[in-house]
Each structure stands twice: as C-alpha cells, then as structure tokens.
Specification:
Number of strands: 2
Strand order of the largest sheet: 1-2
Radius of gyration: 22 Å
Strand content: under 5%
Structural class: mainly alpha
Order of helices and strands: HHHHHHHHHHHHEHHE
Number of helices: 14
C-alpha cells in the first residue's frame, strides 16, 4: 500500500481520524514509497480539513512537503491555505509554505499567488515577495529560460506591498540578461513602469532598454538577423514550429494539453530542441493549458 492509499484509508475511518492522521504524518508517512505519484485534489482537501482543525504547524509542514507539492492544480489550492493563515496567523505557515515550494519550478508563481490573496497581512506579503525575487534571480542568472510573465507578476506584487526596492533589484537582475533574450522583458516592463513614479525604477528600466538596443545595433552592424536552430526535429508539432520560425509571425500558441503539467513538459522539450532568442512558456491550467 502506498502513502496515498494509506491516507485515504485513515480518512475514511471517522473514529479517531485526527489522532490517526497525526500519528501517521509525524511517524509513519516517510516509511512509504517515494513521493512520485500525483495526489488527488479530493484527498488534499479532506486531509487539509483535518489538519486545519488541529492548527498544528508540524502537521502543516508535513502536508506541504509530502502532499501539496505533488498536487497538480496547486494554484487552485491557494485559497484554502489563505483561509488557514487568516485563522491561525501567518508567520509560521508562510515559512513552511516557502520551505516546500522552493524546490518547485512554479514556486515563484505560487508565492506570488498566496501573497495576492493575503492583503491584510503585509509582513507575509513581504516575505513571499522577497522569496519570489530570490527565485527570479536564481532562474535568470543560472539559465536562459525566459520568465518575463512571472517577472511581471513579481513587479505587481512588489508594488502592491510598497516594497519598491524589490522592483529596483529585479530590474538590475534583468539588466544582466543576454541582449538577445531581453525583448520579452522589455515588453513586459514597458507595460508596468508607469505604475511607478520613482526615478530609480525608470533609471533601471532605461538600463534594460539600453542593453537591448546595444545588442540590436550590433546585429544590424554585422548584418545579422535573428537565428534559430532546431537541434532535433523529431518532436510534436515540429513542422508547424519550423514554419513559424521561418515566417513573419511573432508568436505561436500550441493548445490541446490536458493539464498545465503536460504543457510545462512540452515547453521544457522545446527549450531543449530549439536554440535561439525564443520565449517558450506554459500558461493557463487544466484542459485550457
């Protein structure tokens, strides 16, 4: 019996369910098979209800690290976490939440989403937004993966929290991105910069734009046009993508995924197969991914 089946079994027995869950989470769950399979939303909701009634942070920590991170529709569960924070306070819960999501690719978005639904807890929002900045810095500095959409969410979150330094630091990090990859960031910041009247924000934004312009001037002077190379053409939609890259269109939407997880997997594959200044990202969720 795996951990999911064992949890379902305990929850189905109403007699002493709370004590059984407490004992199971604290002393037994880690003896089960590795946490590979996805956790059903119904199980998470039922288990969370029991844990929320106890208001015991050790159980919350186990839940985040063992169940929540395997939940496919994590964003849909954020309101449940927010309601618990409103009941018991924020500091301990937020720290446990961050400790769990920092291992996830979507950790930055999850932190910003929770921050967004906790407007009455400014310190929690600062903690979550600061974590999101750290994640953005790591991603931008360690890979060529474009996270312009997430950067936009981070900017908005920082402005909502009145922590302008996050915006300044964010722009400085983006300013170090290779010029060929800056276009989506410039487009994103151009939509956001008017929300700030601070001169340091505009100065930092100018440095990003100048870096992009410098790269474009260098390309023009060398007579170079944007170039993409497909290293391996045997992958889904390869023909359509190849046609798009050689044509005049500036964006291509691929639909038909049954989950955001499947869309992210495809995006990761495309980033591996295509070399060049291309922004590949997975958006929406569920059947609309």
């Amino acid at each position: 019996m795996g951990d999911i089946a064992a949890t379902f079994s305990i929850l189905s027995d109403d007699s002493g369910a709370t004590d059984k869950i407490r004992r199971f989470l604290l002393f037994e769950v880690e003896t089960y098979q590795p946490k590979a399979s996805c956790v059903p939303m119904a199980l998470c909701q039922k288990l969370w209800k029991v844990i929320a009634e106890t208001e015991e942070l050790p159980l919350v920590g186990v839940f985040f690290n063992w169940y929540f991170i395997r939940l496919e529709s994590k964003l849909d569960f954020i309101p449940d976490i927010a309601r618990f924070v409103q009941r018991v306070g924020c500091e301990g819960v937020v720290n446990l939440f961050i400790n769990a999501i920092k291992q996830l690719e979507e950790g930055m978005c999850l932190a910003l989403k929770l921050s967004e639904v906790l407007p009455e807890y400014p310190q929690a929002r600062v903690t979550l937004t600061t974590f999101a900045l750290q994640e953005a810095r790591i991603t931008i500095e360690s890979s060529d993966r474009c996270i312009s959409e997430e950067v936009g969410l981070l900017w908005k979150g920082a402005m909502d929290c009145n922590i302008e330094k996050v915006c300044t630091d964010l722009l400085k990090v983006v300013a170090q991105v290779e010029g060929s990859l800056l276009s989506p960031y410039v487009n994103q910041f151009s939509k956001l910069i008017n929300s700030s009247s601070l001169p340091e924000h505009r100065a930092a934004f100018t440095s990003v734009v100048d870096r992009r312009r410098q790269w474009l001037r260098e390309q023009v002077s060398r007579g170079v046009t944007p170039h993409w190379e497909i290293s391996h053409e045997h992958f889904p939609d390869a023909a359509n993508i190849s046609t798009f890259l050689q044509g005049p269109l500036v964006s291509l939407v691929i639909e038909g995924f049954n989950s955001i997880g499947a869309a992210r997997t495809r995006a990761a594959l495309l980033r591996m197969r295509i070399e060049g200044p291309l922004d590949v990202s997975a958006r929406k969720r569920g059947a609309e991914a």
